[in-house]
User: Fold this.
Amino acid sequence: MNEKYSDQIFINCPFDDKFKKLFYSIVFTVLYCGFIPRCSKEINDSTRFRLKSIVEIIRECKYGIHDLSRVELDDNNLPRFNMPFELGIFYGAKEFGINNQRRKNCIILEKEKYRYQKFISDLSGVDIIAHDNKVKNCIISIRNWLRTSSRRETIPDGRVVIERYNKFLKVCNELNINYQDMTFIELTQNISDWLNINRVIVKPLFTI
Assistant:
């Protein structure tokens, strides 16, 4: 078994300002539960084809968190299809891949439980979790999915994750740290450092 593959989680979600609170809570939850968060925001190479880089990240991750909350029309009156597209790549890797790829497992999130049926009816019958744009719901949903999917007994109770996340935010505010301005790599490293300092064991991040 490839240990890194089993530890890595591909995060496919909106990156707009309205979703920031949920995005950072997702990253925190993944790290606190002992996994390694990966997403397209780690890509910083203008010489590489972006889609190829995303495919490589998906290939390296056993788990995936896919949020379909942002498919509304934008200012140009066009829908945003990045999230459903990347979900399709992840699903295709699971269906048509070999060896570890067939072991992929993901959770699909939405802000409303049945809204997805209006724009991607092929997912009918799939258990999609609604978080109602609330951080608490998002953390609990991801924590419960990871506990069930990985069967790791080291994953803490959801209420503990929420309490620790709120404490992390409080410390950031007290130190006047605007974590929302950090790059993805800085964010994951800072959260990992904070968890380690506070005697919460997380797996070390590897160099991307």
In short: The beta strands are 8-12, 36-38, 63-67, 105-110, 129-130. The mean pLDDT is 86. The two ends are 20 Å apart (CA to CA).
